[in-house]
Amino acid sequence: MTTEATPAASAATLGAVLSRLVLKGARSSATPLAGRFPDAQAAVVTIFAGGGHGSGFVVTGDGHILTNEHVVEEARFVKVKFASGRELVGEVLRSDRRRDIALVKIGEPGNPHLPLRLGEPPVGSELYAVGTPTYEELYGSVTRGIVSAYRVLDGLPFLQSDVKTIGGNSGGPVLDANGNVVALVVIGILDRQGERTGVNMFIPIADGLKALNIEVLAP
To answer: Is the pTM of this model over 0.70?
Structure first.
């Protein structure tokens, strides 16, 4: 699933009113991520739907996964593959097309999962993206950048960063320096010739959860 889209590509909305869903997540981390990347990579998955793939990440121990709506599209069930090679079937529980976010659930509990940071990291702070760019074999790829700015496009808030993302990264997590999820990969900005600019927009995790009417509680 490509991230090279214009902001208007996600402008359609399902218009559905979703009931409030409360999930039990992980405690936020205050420990530097350096040296702990395998732990983060273990919670990032590759999602297969239709003829392509995207990325996603586990947010609860009982198997709730966040990704982009454009990764799952109209599918009710998707294939979820962990870095370990384990493959499971996931059910799409809810999605929001305008915010381009979806919630998937796998049946097996006890999964590694990532903590969330709902506040905005300051401009200039370090970020990491984890996902499966372009090819399935590149699962768990990590790229680094900084928070460049906060933008509002088509009435939606975005985190702007120079973290490099390409096709297949869609739906993967953007982590702060302590390994907390602050955003999801969604849009790579192209220039007038259709070339990548290195400017990328990400869905702030708090706004993504709000669109799905989800609250994730830490222990």
So the answer is: yes
